[in-house]
Automatic annotation (TrEMBL):
It is found in: Cell inner membrane. This is Phosphate ABC transporter ATP-binding protein. It comes from Paenibacillus roseus. PROSITE patterns: ABC_TRANSPORTER_1, ABC_TRANSPORTER_2. Pfam families: ABC_tran. Residues 9-250 form the ABC transporter domain. GO terms for cellular component: plasma membrane. Keywords: ATP-binding, Cell membrane, Membrane, Nucleotide-binding, Phosphate transport, Translocase, Transport. Gene3D superfamilies: P-loop containing nucleotide triphosphate hydrolases. It is a peripheral membrane protein. One of its GO terms (molecular function) is phosphate transmembrane transporter activity.
Length: 255
């Protein structure tokens, strides 16, 4: 099984264990290019565990074990031969809490491209500007690029983290509740940004907020106790789900 042209990423029979406990059970899920997929479900159902396995972040957790396949183009990224640094260039991650480096705005963006070999100042300047523009942060930061990123507001810091992930030209961006630590205005900006970014990237977002999933995503996957219960077009899943458990969850009967 390989991801085809339209597919950004394809998980097949993916299971994740923490020690003997299975947190994600045999999940097969395709993610298309230029689409946003939301992962929803009650706390502890395995959304973040599944998301983290998509760019091998679970490798960093002692006792975590992943089985199955995850295809991006011709590569099964669970193959031990895969270069994890290059993989994380292709599949970026934005975390729940903004986590800029303790460096200037400019250096936050330039760090990744420089790490991957770009040394030319003019080229780095261009990447910094284009990444900040794509993250809708250029106008707010162009006159303070060399000031600390930590002086930005929480919402600006999160857009900076998105700009930082874009700077290394990923194909896929994973987002783990990217707006849950932000105020409503900053949340709206992140949601707008997600809608803009999907023109260029495959985006997979974990969210607790069902309204947010409905607003930003094309497809939604509902997880429950480590299983994938339903995956469908967002509008269909929220208005006419096929599974009773999905219906119970979206209508607030549990979770
Ligand atoms: N590092 C870990 N070590 C051991 N167990 C873990 C670890 N991380 C998560 N788990 C367990 O795996 C299961 C799935 O957790 P996960 O965080 O993936 O769920 P989630 O749906 O993202 O939850 P939430 O919405 O609360 O973030 C839970 O039972 C959790 O306790």
């Amino acid at each position: 099984m390989q991801a085809t042209q339209e597919l950004g990423l394809s998980a097949k029979d993916l299971s994740v264990y923490y020690g003997s406990k299975q947190a994600v059970r045999d999940i097969s899920l395709d993610f298309e290019k230029k689409q946003v997929t939301a992962l929803i479900g009650p706390s502890g159902c395995g959304k973040s565990t599944f998301l983290r396995s998509l760019n091998r972040m679970n490798d960093l957790i002692s006792g975590a074990r992943v089985t199955g396949e995850i295809w991006i183009e011709e590569d099964n990224i669970l193959d031990p031969k895969v270069d994890v640094v290059l993989l994380r260039q292709k599949i970026g991650m934005v975390w729940q809490r903004p986590n800029p480096f303790h460096k200037s705005i400019y250096e936050n963006i330039a760090f990744g491209p420089r790490y991957h070999g770009i040394k030319n100042k003019k080229q780095l300047d261009e990447i910094v500007e284009s990444s900040l523009r794509k993250a809708a942060l250029w106008e707010e930061t162009k006159d303070r690029l060399h000031q600390s990123a930590l002086a930005l507001s929480g919402g600006q810091q999160q857009r900076l983290c998105i700009a930082r992930s874009i700077a290394v030209k990923p194909q896929i961006i994973l987002m783990d509740e990217p707006a849950s630590a932000l105020d409503p205005v900053s949340t709206a900006k992140i949601e707008e940004l997600i809608t803009e970014l999907k023109q260029d990237y495959c985006i997979i977002i974990v969210t607790h907020n069902m309204q947010q999933a409905a607003r930003v995503s094309d497809k939604t996957a509902f997880f429950y106790m480590g299983d994938l219960i339903e995956h469908d077009h967002t509008q269909k899943l929220f208005t006419n789900p096929s599974q009773q458990q999905t219906d119970d969850y979206i209508s607030g009967r549990f979770g």
